[in-house]
Amino acid sequence: MSEKTAGRFLALEGIDGSGKSTQVQLLLGRLRERGVLCCGTREPTDGPIGAMIRQIMTGRLTADNRVIAGLFAADRLDHLLNGRDGLLRQVEDGVTVVTDRYYFSSYAYHSVDVDMGWVIDGNRLSAELLRPDATIFLDVPVRLALDRIGQNRSHTELFEKEDRLTAVRAKYLEAFARLEGVERVTVIDADADVDTVAERVWAAVSHLFPAV
Fold first, then answer.
1. Separation CA 79–CA 50 (nearest Å)
2. Residues contacting 205, CB < 8 A, separation 6+
3. Which of 14, 44, 143, 210 has the most beta carbons within 10 angstroms of its beta carbon?
4. Helices marked H in 123-184 — which ranges?
């Protein structure tokens, strides 16, 4: 009986409006065409903690920034460990998971308000449980991201302001530098058409699927 092979875990990151959701779907389509068993997910999740976070993001609830950071860390652990569709079990069972955001989002978004080291420590267990085989950062100019948000949504969320997104982008780059040699990060110029960006994403992860 052959030994079960674990799936891969890929995380797409970027500021709001960077095109992550689109690229997650395109990458999943490409993997499926090649016969890779895969699924997509996102953070915050659709679970109970994620639902609370979404209410905060849309202004229906209010919370201190430190509480928000803690909720994201808790939602992430539930995402990994819950008995229904936990990511850890899926990857162990051979499913390749592509997620729209993971802990680098917390490092970038929350460290605008609180110490980055505190945020990293708060997510340490998640990093130990499941570290991405590849983290892809879709880098776009903030003004372009805001234009996309304005075209695609009827309302903006808590963090979707120019000064905030500028600070978040800088924090992403700071986090990548801080964890160089620990995390497998590729920064992609996403200021291009959708198909060109998709080719860049595939070029960054295709080495993980040599048999397809």
1. 9
2. 10, 27, 133, 134, 136
3. 14
4. 124-129, 142-152, 162-178
The order of strands in the sheet holding 185-189 is 38-42, 96-100, 9-13, 134-139, 185-189
- Beta-carbon-side half-sphere exposure of residue 130 (alpha carbons within 13 Å): 25
- Give per-residue pLDDT as tens, 18-66: 999 999 999 999 999 999 999 999 999 999 999 999 999 988 999 999 9
Q: CB neighbours of 133 closer than 8 A, spacing ≥ 6? A: 8, 9, 10, 184, 205, 208
Which tokens go with 1?
């009986």
Distance (Å, rounded) from C-alpha 161 to C-alpha 142? 9
pLDDT in tens, 141-163: 999 988 888 876 545 555 567 89
Tokens of 164: 């905030």
Contact status, residue 103 vs residue 137, Cβ threshold 8 Å: no
Residue type present at position 90: Q
pTM of the model: 0.92
Q: Do residues 201 and 188 make contact, with C-beta atoms less than 8 angstroms apart?
A: yes
End-to-end distance of the chain based on CA atoms, in angstroms?
22
